[in-house]
Amino acid sequence: MDIGIDAIGFYTPHYYVDLVKLAKARGDDPDKYTIGIGQDQMAVAPATQDIISMAANAVDALPSARLDGRLGMVIVASESGVDESKAAAITVARLTGLNPWVRAFDIKEACYGATAGLLMARDYVAAHPTKTALVIASDIARYGLASGGEVTQGAGAVAMVISAQPRVLALQDDAVAYTEDIPDFFRPTGMTVPVVDGHYSTAAYLDFVTKIVGQHQVQYHDTITDYAALLFHLPFTKMGKKALAALTDSVRLGQRLTAASQLSRQVGNIYTGSLYLSLLSLLCHDKTMQAGDRIGLFSYGSGAVGEFFSGILAPGFADHIGQAAVIQLLAEREELTIPAYEQMFNAQIPLGDAPAAFPPENSPARFTVGGRRDHARWYRDTTKSMTEGD
Ligand code: COA
């Protein structure tokens, strides 16, 4: 029985910064950002988007018929959540009107969380083939104004329906995971930006990718030439190039990685969703991919957990990835000047539970954060005339 990704929905905030302009504002050579790091633009989340509203907007981008009564599990993976206790998945399920007869919970392990969710969902459907699961990766990557990591910020969410007879990617039962306790990136409770050593993290990532893919080859007797494409977690797109170079000098895989990096170049790092944004990018931008092609996916979450697994493209996959909506979402975005970005960056809802209220967001997003009342955040839904805040 094939089990895997049946549909993909994507959301990124309405605002972005041109990184050539950011480089000039920071006194850096723009080539460092666009070539050295491999980023062109980065999404900027206004105070009216958090990981719950972004996740709900990504679910809203899925065909609603895929979220029927068969749904049995809803997982949100995030490393930028808004509550220490309550799962974002519960609020996302309510906002998007999902069937309440589900298990809803969150997963955290830096940028690896969505992979844990995806493979857990695969096992769930294997045990209950008539059921489906919804896995949503949602994150806002913030490193701080004028920080070393600033150019690798971003924001967005990817929602995936997992089912038997998947119409996008059949996940193979070949995952190899590796865990090692290292201090490359972490965010102690109460801090709004992470403690990160980017160069150490890059070296750890490369160590993990060679070790894990090597182990996969030992366990499953495969070689790089078995793959039509290799995808990687992309904290910045140069990282994918470094990872591929550590494994192979294949020109064909290099071209496919370029296609798989296009959306990340425009959106930036979306942490746990980045690997799946890369899958979406490959399927949107490389018209030579075909049903039956094997794709290898490498997931890395600082701290650190890495996992490599593969999937086989399903016939008609292009009809189930919401490509037209992805193109429209990006085309409608609004560029921010650097001062406007800095102002938006600093205008976040404060930590804690003090009341807050925001005017409606001037964007096509269906779900936005309305504010905070009675200690809890409330959300606007543009399809409803009355909102939670009224
Ligand atoms: N033209 C072209 N390339 C240039 C350049 C120029 N003018 N100036 C620098 N570069 C290249 C460098 O050679 C380097 O490439 P290399 O890594 O292939 O050698 C790259 O640009 C980055 O330069 P570097 O000096 O290393 O930049 P930095 O010290 O500002 O650090 C990051 C870059 C990505 C490490 C930093 O932004 C960061 O820490 N980001 C967060 C990463 C993260 O989130 N990690 C955890 C998740 S996995």
Task: Describe it.
This is Hydroxymethylglutaryl-CoA synthase. Helix 3 crosses helix 4. Helix 4 links the parallel strand 4 and strand 5. The protein is α+β, with helices and mostly antiparallel strands and 390 residues long. The relative contact order is 0.19. It is built from eleven helices and 18 strands. The protein starts with a strand and ends in a 9-residue tail after the last strand. The chain has two domains: 227 residues, Thiolase/Chalcone synthase (Peroxisomal Thiolase, Chain A, domain 1, 3-Layer(aba) Sandwich), CATH 3.40.47.10; 145 residues, Thiolase/Chalcone synthase (Peroxisomal Thiolase, Chain A, domain 1). Bound molecules: coenzyme A. The site of coenzyme A has 23 residues, from helix 2 and helix 6.
**Largest sheet: number of strands, sense, barrel closure:** 10 strands, mixed
Give me the Rg, rounded. 20 Å
Helix percent band: 25-40%
Number of helices: 11
CATH topology of the largest domain: Peroxisomal Thiolase, Chain A, domain 1
Point out poorly predicted stretches. none
Architecture of the largest domain, CATH level 2? 3-Layer(aba) Sandwich
Q: Which descriptor suits the 3D outline?
A: globular
CATH superfamily of the largest domain: Thiolase/Chalcone synthase
Mean pLDDT: 97
Q: How many β strands by DSSP?
A: 18
CATH class of the largest domain: Alpha Beta
Beta-strand proportion? 25-35%
Bound molecules: coenzyme A
* C-alpha end-to-end distance: 48 Å
Structural class designation? alpha+beta
Helix-strand pattern: EEHHEHEHEHEEEEEEHEHHHEEHEHEEE
Number of spatially distinct domains: 2
Protein name: Hydroxymethylglutaryl-CoA synthase
Domain Hydroxymethylglutaryl-coenzyme A synthase N-terminal: 2-164
InterPro entries: HMG_CoA_synt_C_dom, HMG_CoA_synth_N, HMG_CoA_synthase_prok, Thiolase-like
EC number: 2.3.3.10
